[in-house]
Amino acid sequence: MDGKIALEEHFAVDDTVGDSQEYFPAEEWPGKRRQLLDLLDERLRRMDACGIEYAIISLNSPAIQAIHDVKRAVDVARRANDALADQVGRRPDRLGAFAAIPMQDPDAAADELSRAVADLGFLGALVNGFSQVGGADEVVYCDDSRYRSFWAAMAGLEVPFYLHPRNPPPSQRQVYSGQPWLMGPAWAFAAETGAHALRLIGSGLFDEHPNLQVILGHLGEGVAHYIWRTSHWASADGRNPAGVRAKRAFIDYFRANFYLTTSGNFRTMAMRGAMDEIGGDRVLFSTDYPFEDMEEAARWFDNAEIGDNDRLKIGRENARRLFKLAGRA
Ligand code: GRE
Ligand code: ZN
Predict the structure, then answer these.
(1) Which atom of ligand 1 is nearest to the CA of 217?
(2) Is the pLDDT confidence value at 98 over 90?
């Protein structure tokens, strides 16, 4: 399929590129590092070969969220967003951008979001899970009450928020001890990020901002598969809604306030399950390049056994509508 739009597509700056090294064998790292730092060269050639017309680019993970020093987090986010704006501005026909957000400082987070969207033309925010504020185990999740004005800014700008994975905090890795392969994309990213997404629902965030849209990668970080059971137990009228502030059923928010992308999860039956649960209008093609192979993602998606009308929606039209891309892509 030509004309695809992809939106979990990563780059890095010198300050953050090292965060991605642990995920690759030493001999692969120089190539991956180069791919992370490149936006206009190899990346565009691969997009051409894959039928990807437009990519919305975000910083690697955990990057800003793992900078304990608050002032430095604010500074690196600003510089990364400026660097991205400069490159994207050279190929506005092919590239868009998500803003990196220094959640360590809620006021600065709202300011940087507004600057990125209003001044730099960015299409939304991408945050890599919890933020560390002052120390490795000083973690703050995005449902924290300190973010009320940040979320009001998100809702006011009418741009989506991509909740992207990172590994759990150092003090919460017992279940992975002795079996480090469980960390990262094999399992821990999804467990951490899926729970974080449910925190957003349970906090009542979407009662306050009913039009707010949150994007999850990897076909929903497990949430699509599990939402009936979570909803059955935790919804206000469910079996045990202890501590839940959300007024309606969890599954209603999931279907009204979330989008899911295919990033890094190239499995047709999982995509079909996601489409059945959330609706074909809320699934979006993405690759997760350069952590995944862009060609594999495109080949899988182009040939997946879904209807061609769904392929057009998931591959292009849903993203055009969500990001208001008419005139851009
Ligand atoms: C990602 O950010 O999407 C990612 C990593 C590391 C490994 C795989 C992956 O940061 O998808
Ligand atoms: Zn990713």
Answers:
(1) 3
(2) yes
Per residue in 299-313, pLDDT (tens digit) is 999 999 999 999 999
Distance CA 292, CA 25 (A): 14
Provide the pairing of β-strand 131-132 with 139-140.
antiparallel
- Report the distance separating Cα 221 and Cα 193, nearest Å: 6
Residues facing residue 292 across a β-bridge: none
> How much is the CA Rg of the chain, to the nearest whole Å?
19
Q: What's the CA gap between 208 and 128, in Å, rounded? A: 23
Residue-level pLDDT at 156: 98
Token code pair at residue 285: 């093609």
Question: How many whole angstroms separate alpha carbon 192 and alpha carbon 261?
Answer: 17
Average pLDDT over residues 9-23: 98
Q: For 100, phi and psi rounded to 5 degrees?
A: -80, 140
At 141, the amino acid letter reads: Y
pLDDT of residue 327: 87
Pocket test for ligand 1, best of 9, 10, 167 (most atoms within 8 A of CB): 10
Whole-number Å distance, alpha carbon 265 to ligand 1 midpoint, is 12
Backbone angles phi, psi at 317, to 5 degrees: -65, -35
Structure tokens at 310: 């769904």
Q: From CA 130, how far away is CA 133, in angstroms rounded?
A: 10
pTM, entire model: 0.99
**Which residue stretches of 164-242 are H helix?**
188-202, 205-208, 223-234
Nearest to 75 by CA among 64, 59, 62: 64
Annotation says 288 is catalytic: yes
